[in-house]
């Protein structure tokens, strides 16, 4: 085993004698440290402290975060029960989405069979509104919870709590904890294992949002946190035991990476450190399988959106690395039998992110800023090339929020 073991820092409960009895937080120097699964809770606490001391650089970033949070205050909450199109089986509490890259045949009256056009999104898939609403729910709850944590403004926390309760807890509007009907292909099936990526790409941010709110946010009670945890216990069981879950975990491309990362985060959140460790250790296999010695990702560069998927897969690996630190495993320093490693994968992408080289593989819509967060992550992990690149890359739309939410996100959504 080639992983480097470090001290685990994830906190699952407040220490004995703490002045707080809220679950999943640590009180240190009168500061609350969220028990986040991907984000570094201690780093968030230190950043909040720096903002309190009027750090001017951080204040500029906070203004950008607040601008995003303010835009979310007038949107939502959302629910699976409001979809314009019912899921197969007719249960409005089931999440449903349609495979975006599949199009009806032009030479048949009913459009069957549907034909795949990789990277080209069929607008018909928007008829299942759960997919778009899910994305809004993910991002809004995350940004609002962070805005509350850093500013203390109650309206951010109350709206974030309302968004999470509506989607996951309230009986009339909650989602069933499964993805049986995700990424449906009309004429062919009622859902696919591949549909798990609808959640695995971004759902861990929602789990972190709840952990942040659990540090004492108004409008988010202990009962809310307990109910949300119970939902995730059921969802994690489905991810591990359903046929779809098993198939997705076996995927060799970015789907398998995101599946492992999501399970690791949910296991950590729900208290199963053994499962979290197991999935982090699986990162060795993922790196061996997906990254070549020269840093390319052969499976992803073969796609029509090769840049998007190359950066996307590394988002999942770097998030898994962040989870690994909480269970004492450092996959940043892992090197495979053919010298595959995470640093090389990011070093390969840096010239294209900074504009010093032109991407030579097929890409329908190149956005250099897609690599912003993973370069930040590599710089924080000690990669010299990444530290130099941080000052040169194109910031994403809405600004570079890394100093306030240091966990890689997919920044070039193609939905």
TrEMBL record:
In residue numbers, the region (Disordered) covers 394-415
Recorded hits in InterPro entries, A to Z, give: Alginate_lyase_dom, Chondroitin_lyas
Q: Where is the Alginate lyase domain?
A: 79-359
Example GO CC term: the record gives:
periplasmic space
* One term of GO molecular function: lyase activity
- State whether keyword Signal applies: yes
Which Pfam families does the entry link to?
Alginate_lyase (PF05426)
What are the alphabetically sorted keywords of the record?
Lyase, Signal
Record protein name field: Chondroitin AC/alginate lyase
Tell me the organism: Zopfia rhizophila CBS 207.26
């Amino acid at each position: 085993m080639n992983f480097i073991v470090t001290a685990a820092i994830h906190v699952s409960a407040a220490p004995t004698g703490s002045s707080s009895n809220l679950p999943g937080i640590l009180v240190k120097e009168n500061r609350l440290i969220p028990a986040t699964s991907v984000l570094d809770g201690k780093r968030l606490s230190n950043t909040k402290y720096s903002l309190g001391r009027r750090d001017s650089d951080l204040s500029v970033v906070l203004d950008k975060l607040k601008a995003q949070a303010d835009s979310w205050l007038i949107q939502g909450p959302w629910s699976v029960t409001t979809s314009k199109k019912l899921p197969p089986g007719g249960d409005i509490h089931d999440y449903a989405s349609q495979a975006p890259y599949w199009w009806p045949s032009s030479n048949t009256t009913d459009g069957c069979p549907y034909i795949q056009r990789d990277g080209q999104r069929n607008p018909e898939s928007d008829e299942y509104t759960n997919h778009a609403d899910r994305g809004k729910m993910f991002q809004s709850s995350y940004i609002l919870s962070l805005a509350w944590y850093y500013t203390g403004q109650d309206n951010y926390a109350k709206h974030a709590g309302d968004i999470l309760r509506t989607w996951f807890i309230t009986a009339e509007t909650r989602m069933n904890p499964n993805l049986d009907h995700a990424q449906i292909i009309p004429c062919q099936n009622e859902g696919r294992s591949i549909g798990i990526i609808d959640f695995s790409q971004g759902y861990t941010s929602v789990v972190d949002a709840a952990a942040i709110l659990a540090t004492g946010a108004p409008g988010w009670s202990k009962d809310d946190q307990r109910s949300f945890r119970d939902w995730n216990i059921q969802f994690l069981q489905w991810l591990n035991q359903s046929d779809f879950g098993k198939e997705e975990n076996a995927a060799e491309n970015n789907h398998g990476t995101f599946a492992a990362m999501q399970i690791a985060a949910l296991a950590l959140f729900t208290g199963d450190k053994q499962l979290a460790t197991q999935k982090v250790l699986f990162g060795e296999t993922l790196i061996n399988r997906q990254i070549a010695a020269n840093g390319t990702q052969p499976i992803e560069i073969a796609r029509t959106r090769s840049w998007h998927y190359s950066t996307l897969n590394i988002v999942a690996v770097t998030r898994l690395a962040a989870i690994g630190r909480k269970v004492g495993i450092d996959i940043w320093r892992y090197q495979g039998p053919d010298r595959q490693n995470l640093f090389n994968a990011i070093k390969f992408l840096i010239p294209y992110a900074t504009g010093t080289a032109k991407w030579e593989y097929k890409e329908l819509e190149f956005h250099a800023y897609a690599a912003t967060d993973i370069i930040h992550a590599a710089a924080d992990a000690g990669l010299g090339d990444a530290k130099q690149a941080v000052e040169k890359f194109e910031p994403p739309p809405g600004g570079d929020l890394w100093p306030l939410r240091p966990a890689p996100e997919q920044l070039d959504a193609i939905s």
